[in-house]
């Protein structure tokens, strides 16, 4: 089971922040808190097994939550990740190991997206050269048909030659759509993923033990 709560806390509150509007309060320092409930710390990275009550790993769930709220808030809030585990799962040094593994995971994802950006840029430049070549050829052919049509005295011939001339113009600009899409828009998701994983890597991490004997924090 995974759950998230978006909170804005006041620093230094002894009894916790007063919740407003379903778990949100305002302060000078904005803090977004996301809670992940796991059956074991391995569920933070591992995909769920068949029959599990989870649908994604803890990190995938965290990514989706940040991706959703950052569309509106543009990473303005500081992030705190609260991981709830069964009491017996909390061992000495677990918090520090979890922090290190999350940072390594985020660094891997950042590098992966950076490499994808470089590959996309090369693909876009190659597509641009192809598109410009096709556009130049189409413009020349369109110009030739237009010139021949204007030199002809027959109005029917003029109308007939105008059709392929317009067709070559359209085909030339259509050839530019793919490089334009690659260079102008396709890089956005990769850049966004880099920012999301940087946001996670800089987050405060806290462990919360949950069990029949009560609860305690490790942060």
Any descriptors?
13% strand; single chain; alpha/beta; 219 residues; 2 domains
What does this structure look like?
It is a single chain. With 219 residues, the protein is α/β, with parallel strands linked by helices. It has two domains: 31-110 and 202-218, no CATH class; 111-191. 53% of the residues lie in helices and 13% in strands. It contains five helices and four strands, in the order βαβααααββ. The protein has helices at residues 58-73, 94-151, 155-174, 177-184, 188-201, and strands at 31-37, 78-86, 204-211, 214-218. It has a four-stranded mixed beta sheet with strand order 1-2-3-4, covered by helices on one side. α1 (58-73) crosses α5 (188-201), α2 (94-151) packs antiparallel against α4 and α2 (94-151) runs antiparallel to α5.
Lateral strand order in the biggest sheet: 1-2-3-4
Secondary-structure element sequence? EHEHHHHEE
Biggest sheet record: 4 strands, mixed
| Tally of DSSP β-strands | 4
Q: CA-to-CA gap between the ends?
A: 22 Å
Number of domains: 2
The structural class is alpha/beta
Shape: rod-shaped
Low-confidence stretches: 3-28
Helical percentage = 40-55%
Provide the gyration radius in Å.
28 Å
Give me the number of helical elements. Answer: 5
Mean pLDDT over the residues: 80
Give the DSSP E fraction (strand runs of 2 or more residues).
5-15%
């Amino acid at each position: 089971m995974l759950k998230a709560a978006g909170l804005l806390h006041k620093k230094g509150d002894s009894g916790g922040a007063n919740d407003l509007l379903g778990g949100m309060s305002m302060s000078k320092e904005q803090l977004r808190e996301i809670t992940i409930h796991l059956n074991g710390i391995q569920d933070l990275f591992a995909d769920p097994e068949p029959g599990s009550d989870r649908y994604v790993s803890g990190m995938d769930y965290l990514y989706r939550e940040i991706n959703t709220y950052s569309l509106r808030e543009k990473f303005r809030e500081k992030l705190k990740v609260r991981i709830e585990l069964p009491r017996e799962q909390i061992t000495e040094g677990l918090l520090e190991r979890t922090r290190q593994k999350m940072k390594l995971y985020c660094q891997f994802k950042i590098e992966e997206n950076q490499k994808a950006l470089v590959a996309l840029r090369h693909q876009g430049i190659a597509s641009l050269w192809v598109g410009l070549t096709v556009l130049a050829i189409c413009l020349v052919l369109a110009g030739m048909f237009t010139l021949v049509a204007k030199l002809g005295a027959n109005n029917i011939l003029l109308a007939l030659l105008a059709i392929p001339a317009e067709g070559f113009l359209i085909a030339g600009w259509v050839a530019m759509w793919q490089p334009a899409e690659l260079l102008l828009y396709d890089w956005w998701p990769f850049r966004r993923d880099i920012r999301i994983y940087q946001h996670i890597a800089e987050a405060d991490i806290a462990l919360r033990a949950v069990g029949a004997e009560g609860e305690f924090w490790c942060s």
